[in-house]
Structure prediction request, 299 residues.
Amino acid sequence: MYPVLDDLISLLHLERIEDNIFRGDSRDIGSAQVFGGQVLGQALSAAQHTVEDRVAHSLHSYFLRRGDMNAPIIYEVDRARDGGSFSMRRVVAIQHGRPIFNLAASFQVAEDGLEHQAEMPDVPGPDGLPNSVDVAKALLDKIPMKMRRFMTADRPFEFRPVRPMNFADPEKLPPVRHVWVRTVSPIPDLNVLHQNLLAYVSDYELLGTATMPHGLSFARGNVIMASLDHALWFHRPVRVDQWLLYDMDSPNMSGARGYARGQFFTEDGVLVASTSQEGLVRVVEEDRSGNRSDPRLQV
Prediction:
């Protein structure tokens, strides 16, 4: 019923070539290179294929090179450690003989213990909020042609921002965002799949939070943005086909790098995951003719 979601799930499954080697394809979602969340989700999937009876609780990754959407990605898994309670995996993603991404992920046997968590922000629920794609379509004539497909294409997730942003003419705002997110339809009750999809979607929206105090938007083509690293912690079981509040803020921008962090809450206030990311953020200067060069080619 939703081919774009079915296709993403198949992308995250991966083809097993050897015990510790996997191959994945890519999809063009309108970005200049392979979407970082896709590589993140596929690398986690590769690691999960080598672990039994343990659940991922954290991952840390670095984006090394642009991914080529026209070539498969090879994932090599190093079974670094299998202890009594924890397992560690290292994954390298390779294209054209060179690493483009690496990831370290830790897995744990299910265990009970002490609990506490942060409070969920007091924001409106998802009902009645506009879909971000509809917001973008309303501004279509103000969005540069090269950005329109990325902003308005069908997506496997629905995003409902608490405060919609004007991507065409952003104002300077505090670096805080709240977006409700879920898959466009129900998916199988497989914990590994829900974790993979959360890793995928955690790369949406996050770095853009760092540009908010500066009145910048990648949709206008006046800023270069690229993920440098990404970390994700799974605190509790998660279902991405039910509404999650993605609570994001950016404590710092300096050295042409923006830092942002996020938390995922269920509708009833349970904190299921946290994430953080640092990325390249450069303002694109106009040349003497008033033209801006394509920021996607300069990272």
